[in-house]
Specification:
There is one protein chain. This protein is of the alpha/beta class and 496 residues long. The strands form 7 sheets. A 7-stranded mixed beta sheet has the order 16-18-19-14-13-21-22, sandwiched between helices. A 6-stranded mixed beta sheet has the order 10-9-8-11-12-24, sandwiched between helices. β13, α10 and β14 form a beta-alpha-beta unit. Bound molecules: nicotinamide-adenine-dinucleotide (NAD). The site of nicotinamide-adenine-dinucleotide has 28 residues, from α8 and α9.
Length: 496
């Protein structure tokens, strides 16, 4: 199949977007590599502490006027941004495939989910309304004014380069704050494009800033007294570090971490519908998704059901086409880089060493459509006879590996899910309402699926998480994001 035209044709050095200007960093640069073609597509600055200080200062200067701008006027900027995102939809999606490696359909899905957050934030005039109580005492009324905080930081991971900062940034600016986005330095290009569009949409200088880089930028945000809140998404160790660093500083924090998700299969599920859903859940985004299925837990002692089910999964999985995501026939892209692939290979090896049975070996079963020099490709792997104490049954692999676990009862399945350190997105597949009710009542994960394999809350619902998958109180997306980005001012008035 033909490869769609690549929007990024040459490797330019990226600039930070600070105070409405494109500013060169004095920091060193790092190559951004297309994981499918192996080609360098950009040079990203590893910005310095002076860069992040300049962005915070610019946002502090922009804040007083932006705060005075009416919510309707602020939402007009977001409406313009939404229109521009629609006009540039395909380009943004292709950039994501180039920088990350996911298939073009996955990128289009990501772009759509990102835009949905902008759409929801457009409703800020009503999202920001506070409650009012008349006559709390005779002749006295009381009301709440949700008040923006000032400068906020949004830090993203590599696996959803475009969408993840949009879980927080549109709500932050809509509610009258200024934002500094730090994209993952591994995938900075779609955020650079987004900043161009934010500029075109008419956000005043200093309201929307982007500073590329790594730890120095993150610690610069964490240590800066004028950064009032941080919305972080990434791995659990970094999430814990961000959360702890904010403790006692007065900064608000949302820190979303890693995951190990269980997909529980009841013998009464609709097999025909369930199997294709599982393919997307386990192998979509090459398994590099915080809501990816990781453990497939098959309930019951019916050997025939078990083997038929696993066979059906095997049959679809073993035929998957792997390749460059800009080829529309490709079903799974490469792993994002060699280091990450190496980590997945170590997990596969550990599964074999710890006694799991490898039913489909992704190291051998790699049908690549096309001829690419990249070494980041890996086929989907299925393990059977996995137990939750094995590394592959308990740790986040973040690659296309399915671990099949057998249990006798739903009770056992729920207890196994709840024993995990993670609590991001677990799901049950069943046609029995009682089983579904029992599962959703007892399960300790923030996002729960019933016959749904990727439990991704839509933009007007909070993106939740429990245990090692989430640190904080309020969540990104929708109304909760607006609450996170505002503090309540309570006014009491006596009408004399
Ligand atoms: P990561 O933790 O390595 O990086 C996330 C961000 O933190 C990046 O911007 C990175 O530059 C920065 N960073 C990394 N190490 C740092 C350090 N020591 N000090 C300061 N900053 C640091 O995560 P990743 O590998 O980019 O992303 C994958 C992880 O994100 C997976 O664990 C996945 O489950 C998780 N994730 C979670 C959610 C969720 O909603 N819970 C969503 C998407 C991804």
């Amino acid at each position: 199949m033909a490869i769609l035209e690549e929007p990024i044709k040459e490797a330019k050095k990226l600039k930070n977007y600070i105070n409405g200007e494109w500013v060169e960093s004095k920091g060193e640069t790092k190559d951004v590599v297309n994981p499918a073609t192996g080609r360098i597509i950009a040079k990203v600055p590893i910005s310095t502490s002076d860069d992040i200080k300049a962005a915070v200062q610019a946002s502090q200067e922009a804040f007083p006027d932006w705060r005075r701008t009416t919510p309707l006027a602020r939402s007009r900027c977001l409406f313009r941004l939404k229109e521009l995102l629609e006009e540039n939809f395909e380009e943004i999606s292709r950039i994501q495939t180039q920088e990350h490696g996911k298939t073009i359909d996955e990128s289009r899905g990501e772009t759509r989910r990102g835009i949905e957050n902008v759409e929801v934030a457009c409703g800020i005039p009503t999202l920001m309304q506070g409650p009012y109580s008349e006559n709390i005492a005779t002749g006295i009324d009381e009301w709440i004014i949700p008040t923006p905080l000032g400068t906020l930081g949004s830090i993203g991971p590599f696996n959803f380069p475009f969408m993840l900062p949009l879980w927080s940034a549109p709500y932050a600016v809509a509610s009258g704050n200024c934002v500094v986005i730090k994209p993952s330095s591994e995938v900075p290009l779609s955020q650079a494009k987004l900043a161009e569009l934010a500029e075109e949409a008419g956000f005043p200088p200093g309201v929307w800033n982007v500073v590329h880089g790594g730890r120095t930028v993150v610690s610069g945000m964490l240590e800066h007294p004028d950064v009032k809140g941080i919305a972080f998404v990434g791995s659990t160790p970094t999430a814990k570090y961000v959360y702890k660093s904010c403790g006692g500083t007065g900064k608000r924090v949302i820190a979303q971490g890693g995951a190990k998700n269980f997909m529980v299969i009841m013998p009464d599920c609709n097999v025909e519908r369930t199997v294709p859903v599982l393919m997307t859940s386990f192998f979509g985004n090459t398994g590099q998704r915080c809501l990816a299925g990781a453990n497939l837990v098959i309930v019951g002692d019916d050997d025939k059901f078990y083997s038929n089910f696993v066979d059906a999964v095997f049959n679809l999985t073993s035929k998957m086409t792997i390749g460059y995501g800009l080829d529309e026939s490709v079903q799974m892209g490469p792993i994002h880089d060699k280091e990450k692939k190496e980590k997945v290979l170590e997990y596969i090896e550990s599964g074999i060493q710890q006694g799991a049975k490898i039913r489909l070996d992704g190291r051998e079963n790699v049908k690549i459509a096309g001829d690419y020099p990249s070494t980041c490709f890996l086929g989907p792997t299925i393990f059977e006879n996995v137990t939750p104490d094995m590394k592959i049954g308990s740790e986040e692999i973040f690659g296309p590996v399915m671990s099949v676990i057998r249990v006798k009862t739903l009770d056992e399945a729920i207890e196994m899910c709840n024993a995990s350190n993670f609590g991001n997105g677990n799901a049950i597949f069943t046609s029995n309402g009682k089983s579904a009710r029992e599962f959703q009542f007892r399960i300790t994960s923030g996002n729960v699926g019933i016959n749904v394999g990727i439990v991704a809350p839509v933009a007007f619902f909070p993106f939740s998480g429990m245990k090692d998958s989430f640190f904080g109180i309020l969540h990104t997306q929708g109304q909760e994001a607006v609450r996170f980005f505002t503090e309540s001012k309570v006014v009491i008035q006596r009408w004399l």
